[in-house]
């Protein structure tokens, strides 16, 4: 080995100040001063209280930071489908969230580790509700003023994301969190992507079926911010109708429901429509009417105009989040209520899991209570941003 070649001592601690070993280049490199962000704390510094959610990519716990006494949400990254031991979707989520700061986007406070790279947790500000479980358990639906308050916040969060070149790609009620102060936060960036101009092809099987835009259902590989807008329209419709607007049971059924609600698209309103891949496999039913008015007979003209500007088939002609924020629907009566005046609700997600809590009583501070978190005492890792850069997560 040449005298000046970098030497990596595998037994040395990863924490060695200012140096990091590159898996791809096989050598050690200096960490730039601006990226020395310290090390990740261990998950054992958190006391697990209860499980609040489990989705596609992670399990989420309510937990107490024993150092600060603060209640936080801990999202454990799922390790299935990982590449080279790294949960790609989780690292994408971290990478995106680390760069976002907005009052309508969930706040990633830090990343903590279990034993090693095989358990990574996101520490987020805890939000008392998610809209899905709230809608399932509310004694009476949100009033129109409350719906406006929620949707304004969703559009503000979306505008921020889209101006920062992020497409969320999985907007739905379970990914909208609400705090006790009435603040709505867009969460779950497991499917989110940064986009460039021009937009590069991406897999069309994103966005939960009920919220999926027609261009995705018809197999378009080009995804734009318009897919988030379609999903936000489905959320607005759901809040106003008090039930999911387009609850398809399969992709074909979803397309049928969309056509039934908005009429059959054609090349005139959506140039290029007839050459979308999925249309090779079937012909659409002819349905010439838009049934939105029929679905919301009580809604004001401004409200209907907003929905119609969102549910435009041609993605390029669909309203943007900035357009939606300007809608006269939000300026007319009933006026959007102030977030601080939103009612507070019982925390169903915690109540439901009382049995869990009883089981854990008495063991809370024993190592057993960390079973789900991974075993005690972590290897201290250089802050995850370094990893992200090096595994080329952009
Ligand atoms: N910061 C948070 N505060 C409170 N609950 C949360 C938080 N983040 C997620 N949750 C709960 O966990 C559920 C799953 O989290 P999410 O980030 O959507 O993960 P997944 O990718 O598994 O769907 C959410 O629907 C919500 O109920
Ligand atoms: Mg989710």
From TrEMBL:
**Classification via InterPro entries:** CDK, Kinase-like_dom_sf, Prot_kinase_dom, Protein_kinase_ATP_BS, Ser/Thr_kinase_AS, STKc_CDK10
Q: Where in the cell is it found?
A: Cytoplasm, Cytoskeleton, Cilium basal body
**Where do the annotations place ATP binding?**
75
Give the record's keywords alphabetically: ATP-binding, Cell projection, Cilium biogenesis/degradation, Cytoplasm, Cytoskeleton, Kinase, Nucleotide-binding, Phosphoprotein, Serine/threonine-protein kinase, Transferase
What would be an example GO MF term here?
cyclin-dependent protein serine/threonine kinase activity
Q: What is its main location?
A: cytoplasm
Q: Which GO terms describe its cellular component?
A: nucleus
What Pfam families does the annotation carry? Pkinase
Limits of the Protein kinase domain:
46-330
The GO biological-process annotations, alphabetized, read as: cell projection organization; regulation of mitotic cell cycle
Q: Which CDD domains match?
A: STKc_CDK10 (cd07845)
- Family membership, please give it: Belongs to the protein kinase superfamily. CMGC Ser/Thr protein kinase family. CDC2/CDKX subfamily.
Listed under subunit, the entry gives: Heterodimer with CCNQ, the interaction is required for kinase activity. Interacts with ETS2. Interacts with PRK2.
Q: What does this protein do?
A: Cyclin-dependent kinase that phosphorylates the transcription factor ETS2 (in vitro) and positively controls its proteasomal degradation (in cells). Involved in the regulation of actin cytoskeleton organization through the phosphorylation of actin dynamics regulators such as PKN2. Is a negative regulator of ciliogenesis through phosphorylation of PKN2 and promotion of RhoA signaling.
Name of the protein in its database record: Cyclin-dependent kinase 10
Source organism per UniProt: Ridgeia piscesae
């Amino acid at each position: 080995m040449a005298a000046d070649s970098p030497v990596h001592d595998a037994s040395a601690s990863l924490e060695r100040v200012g140096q990091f070993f590159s898996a791809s280049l096989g050598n050690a490199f200096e960490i730039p001063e601006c990226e020395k962000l310290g090390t990740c704390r261990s998950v054992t510094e958190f006391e697990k209280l209860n499980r609040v959610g489990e989705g596609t990519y992670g399990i989420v716990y309510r937990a107490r930071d024993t150092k600060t006494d603060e209640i936080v949400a801990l999202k454990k990254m799922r390790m299935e489908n990982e590449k080279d031991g790294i949960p790609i979707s989780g690292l994408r989520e971290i990478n995106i969230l680390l760069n976002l700061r907005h009052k309508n986007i969930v706040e990633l406070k830090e990343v903590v580790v279990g034993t090693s790279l095989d358990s990574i947790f996101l520490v987020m500000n805890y939000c008392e509700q998610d809209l899905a479980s709230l809608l399932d358990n509310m004694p009476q639906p949100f009033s129109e003023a409350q719906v406006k308050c929620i949707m304004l916040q969703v559009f503000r969060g979306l505008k921020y994301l889209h101006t920062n070149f992020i497409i969320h790609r999985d907007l739905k009620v379970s990914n909208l969190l609400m705090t006790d102060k009435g603040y709505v936060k867009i969460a779950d960036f497991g499917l989110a992507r940064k986009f460039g101009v021009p937009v590069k092809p991406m897999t069309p099987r994103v966005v939960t079926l009920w919220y999926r835009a027609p261009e995705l259902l018809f197999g378009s590989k080009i995804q734009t911010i318009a897919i988030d807008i379609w999903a936000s329209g489905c959320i607005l419709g759901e809040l106003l109708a008090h039930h999911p607007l387009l609850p398809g049971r399969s992709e074909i059924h979803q397309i049928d429901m969309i056509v039934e609600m908005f009429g059959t698209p054609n090349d005139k309103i959506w140039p290029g429509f007839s050459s979308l891949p999925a249309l090779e496999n079937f012909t659409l039913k002819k349905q010439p009417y838009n049934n939105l008015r029929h679905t919301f007979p009580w809604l004001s003209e401004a409200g209907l105009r907003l929905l119609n500007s969102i549910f435009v088939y041609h993605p390029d002609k669909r309203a943007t989040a900035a357009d939606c924020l300007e809608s006269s629907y939000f300026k007319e009566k009933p006026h959007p209520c102030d977030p601080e005046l939103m009612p507070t609700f019982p925390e169903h997600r915690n109540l439901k899991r009382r049995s869990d809590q009883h089981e854990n009583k008495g063991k809370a501070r024993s190592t057993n209570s960390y079973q789900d978190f991974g075993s005690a005492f972590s290897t201290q890792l250089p802050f995850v941003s370094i990893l992200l850069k090096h595994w080329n997560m952009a």
